Amino acid sequence: MEPTPFSLVSSIAANPLTAHQFRAEVDPEWTIGGKPNGGYLLAMMGRAAAAVGQHQHVIAASAHYLSSPDPGPVNLEAEVLRGGRSASQVRVRMEQEGRPRVEALFTTGTLDVDTKPFWEAGLPPRPVAQPDECLRIPSSSPSGLRVAIMDQVDLRIEPSTLGFANGAPSGRGELRGWLALPAGEAFDPTSLLYAVDAFPPATFEIELTGWVPTLELTVYVRALPAPGPVQVLQRAQLIDAQRVDEACYVWDSTGRLVAHGTQLAGIRLG
Amino acid sequence: MEPTPFSLVSSIAANPLTAHQFRAEVDPEWTIGGKPNGGYLLAMMGRAAAAVGQHQHVIAASAHYLSSPDPGPVNLEAEVLRGGRSASQVRVRMEQEGRPRVEALFTTGTLDVDTKPFWEAGLPPRPVAQPDECLRIPSSSPSGLRVAIMDQVDLRIEPSTLGFANGAPSGRGELRGWLALPAGEAFDPTSLLYAVDAFPPATFEIELTGWVPTLELTVYVRALPAPGPVQVLQRAQLIDAQRVDEACYVWDSTGRLVAHGTQLAGIRLG
Q1: Does the beta-carbon distance from A241 to B174 stay under 8 Å?
Q2: How far is A215 from chain B (nearest CA, A)?
Q3: Residue-averaged pLDDT of chain A
Q4: Alpha-carbon gap, residue A124 to A140, rounded angstroms
Q5: Cβ neighbourhood burial of B86 (10 Å; 0-12, 13-18, 19+)
Q6: Do A100 and B118 lie within an 8 Å CB cutoff?
Q7: Do B100 and A82 touch (CB under 8 A)?
Q8: Which of B115, B257, B264 to mutate to test the interface with A (most CBs of A within 10 A)?
Q9: A89 at interface of B, judged by CB pairs closer than 8 A
């Protein structure tokens, strides 16, 4: 079966009666162990933010995950908090069966095609391995969990950061690789919200655990991405009191840093 | 004049008629060029989140800054989005003169005194300079702006990262130093929300500019801090399209990483 384009599985439909309510359908294939990917949900919510605000691109997104929705219909409600000249702020809530599932705040603006980085010396080094040197992650996982989403996207990881796949994590807490959307669809600021949460937990390269549920995810979109796959660096910083934070960096096919983010997640370690 | 304790200047008063509304007073001394520090505002909002939720400690906070309030009274409105066994999620809005100023989401939980880090190899190295090797930042700044807050807190920066004070930024976009609250008041999870935004922009060590307004600030509180001053590392990652992101790390006096965060801000460079 052909994978469905990201623009379709993350699409939202406006409620004809109100300007700020939307319906969406969480796709059963964009899941890990039956639960939807958090960045995928954030992308749907980002579409609602861009639809109601005065600016088309999400610049900053912060989501708190309350209770994972199941695949199927969800309702989105968006409220413009402030509409400014250069930026707008929008709040979006995702509900399912009358219960709030994800709440997120967005700052939207306009990303200009003609900008270039002024200073980037504080970024981590961009990984060097090319896609054909990386291994595609299958939907079957070492833990037995079905990671259905891996049959939709093409996610490849450098063999040197894939120790966990052979039961021998490197201990470095870092994953490097590439991500392509179904049918090679080009990334845009909305799908970059997914890209920042697409990789497996970098903690797998410390110790393999079960589900690492995201509590909070913040994404900054820094530039319009060029067509083609994106390069991803995902790394853990600290595991303390059964919580871990991870930083994620996303470069486009021209080597420009286009998005990055951080997340705090629960983990059964420590 | 003696500085006022942080617990007092960030205190909130419950509205006797409703359980979820609060009043607070933005102190004119906790300002930079007359505008309140964003982390200070977030700490007030964190108090409201902890007051209405079922858990006393902020674990994760994400704020979007709409329009800076002036010193004086502000209203806070908190809504519990979900109250769980181990964590709650709360939304807080700060208003002044009927206009929303800051909107923030919080995940609250309980930080246990008995935990210790399980893995911390992904953190940047903790700075080595002691407080007496660092220079206290005065309230008068090179740009002529009065940074009143520096007469309240004791904020010291390593001379090796203070090039900007002599008109010679190092170009590394990094500041290292120490922070103490007025009268040596101990830090807690609420005041750590301020600590993550206390330092001057790390971009001063790239190129000195005017006001660098925060658009979004995310803070993760990782552990209960020991008494005493905290050690801070603030660094810029990327300046692109007149926006910069900065990461900030805060260690307590025993050398434990207790809070960290990221922010996206506007900047007149690039």
Answers
A1: no
A2: 8
A3: 95
A4: 31
A5: exposed
A6: no
A7: yes
A8: B264
A9: yes
Q: How far is B208 from chain A (nearest CA, A)?
A: 14
Q: Structure tokens of B19?
A: 């359980």
Instruction: Give whole-number Cα distances, B230 to B135, B195, B248, in Å.
Output: 15, 8, 12
Q: What amino acid occupies position B182? A: P
Q: Report the C-alpha gap between A46 and A195 in whole angstroms.
A: 13
Lowest mean pLDDT among B87-96, B147-156, B207-216: B207-216
Q: Provide mean pLDDT across the span B167-186.
A: 96
CATH 2.60.120.920 fits A6-111+130-266, yes or no: no
Q: Span B206-226, mean pLDDT?
A: 94
The residues pairing with A248 across neighbouring beta strands, listed in sequence order, are A234, A261
Tokens of B220: 């993760």
State how far Cα B61 lies from the chain centre.
11
**In the structure encoding, which two tokens stand for residue B194, read together?**
């301020």
Q: Encode chain A (270 residues) as per-residue pLDDT tens digits.
A: 688 999 999 999 998 888 899 999 999 999 999 999 999 999 999 999 999 988 999 999 999 999 999 999 999 999 999 998 889 999 999 999 999 999 999 999 999 988 899 999 999 999 999 999 999 999 997 677 899 999 999 999 999 999 998 889 999 999 999 999 999 999 999 999 999 999 999 999 999 888 899 999 999 999 999 999 999 999 999 999 999 999 999 999 999 999 999 999 999 987
Give the pLDDT of residue B179.
98
CA dist., res. B187 & res. B219, Å (int):
15
Please name the residues in contact with B243: beta carbons below 8 A apart, sequence gap of 6 or more. A59, A222, B215, B264, B265, B266, B267
Return d(Cα B19, Cα A200) in angstroms, integer.
Answer: 41
Subunit contact A87:B119, Cβ cutoff 8 A: no
CA distances from A269 to A206, A209, B58, B118 (A): 10, 8, 21, 7
What is the dihedral angle through the alpha carbons of A35, A258, B61, B162, rounded to the nearest 10 degrees? 150
Quickly list H helices, B53-178. Answer: none
pTM for this entry: 0.97
pLDDT at B2: 81
Q: Residue ranges of the domains in chain B?
A: 6-111+130-266
Q: Look up residue A214 and give its amino acid.
A: T
Q: How far is CA B130 from CA A111, B134, B135, B184, B255, in A?
A: 42, 7, 10, 16, 12
Contact A149, A30 (CB under 8 A): yes
